[in-house]
Write a structure and sequence with these properties.
By secondary structure, this protein is of the alpha/beta class. The chain has a single domain, classed as Rossmann fold. A five-stranded parallel β-sheet has the order 2-1-3-4-5, sandwiched between helices. Helix 6 links the parallel strand 3 and strand 4. It starts with 8 loop residues before the first helix and ends with a helix. The N terminus is likely disordered.
Length: 267
């Protein structure tokens, strides 16, 4: 297992300032306002890089091997929603991936169940070594919502989660200085618009907007494309009201393909 290296809190703040992810209290006009306490790994688990179990580490090591081989122009990074691009099941996105993204020399580094802290650990422990993608498609944060398995302990607040995503964006900009980052809003979840985790996701998404500069980091919210006019999430789009089905992956691909091509062309 790789060893996680936590950067000092002050270094994290300095790096975020240097890349334009502004902190509350700064005199510069902020794009994102993040409480400095939320960038402290001792206080916020969403910014504290962490591995998971042995099977997860094996998957991570497989991604490290892919990175070492190079040849990745587009990197998809995220959780189960990204992971299932590789699924050949009737609900998976493999056929769409092979048609739309495989020709772009894309790699899928999504792992089911990941939170911001797990993606951070992966990036710091080999998944960013050996590649210099032209574009990164990032969506993460849905698993930071809700409660732990005890159904009592909250995972992370929306503000903590935004700080976690900001730290990932900062890491990507450091690791891949020439890459454009497509920062996707977290997809809607729960059948109805008043679902508790849908409300958490909405709050996270409001915070993510400020992480984009419109140049290196571009924010894109395609969530409304999955919804009915009344905000209901159709079961034929997301059968479990969380993960896209085949129709959902078609919607996702259609929504990001042209913006992604524009990023690859440098426009």
């Amino acid at each position: 297992m790789h060893t996680s290296l936590l950067r000092p809190f002050s270094a994290s703040v300095a790096a975020l300032l240097a890349t334009g992810l502004f902190i509350a209290g700064c005199t510069s006009a902020p794009r994102a306002v993040i409480d400095p306490a939320l960038l402290d790994p001792a206080k916020n688990s969403a910014v504290r890089p962490a591995p998971r179990d042995a099977n997860w580490v094996k998957r991570h090591e497989g991604f490290v091997d892919i990175a070492r081989k190079g040849g990745v122009d587009v990197l998809f990074l995220g959780d189960s929603i990204t992971d299932a691009w590789r699924s050949e099941s009737a609900r998976g996105g493999k056929k769409v991936w092979d048609r739309e993204f495989a020709p772009l020399h894309a790699a899928n580094f999504g792992i089911s169940g990941d939170r911001t802290q797990h993606v951070l650990w992966r990036l710091q422990n080999g998944e960013s070594d050996g590649i210099q993608p032209k574009a990164v498609v990032l969506m993460i944060g849905t698993n930071n919502t809700g409660f732990e398995t005890d159904k009592v302990t909250p995972r992370n607040t929306p503000a903590e989660t935004v700080a976690g995503v900001a730290t990932i964006v900062n890491t990507l900009r450091t690791k891949f200085p020439r890459a454009k980052i497509m920062l996707l809003a977290v997809f809607p979840r729960g059948e109805k618009p008043d679902h508790p985790q849908r409300l958490q996701v909405n709050e996270i998404n409001r915070g993510l907007v400020g992480l984009a500069d419109g140049k290196t980091v571009r924010h894109l919210d395609i969530g409304p494309k999955f919804l009915q006019p009344d905000g209901t999430l159709p079961k034929d789009i997301m059968p479990d009201f969380l993960h896209p089905g085949a129709a959902g992956y078609e919607i996702w691909a259609a929504a990001i393909k042209q913006p992604l091509l524009d990023m690859l062309r440098g426009s």
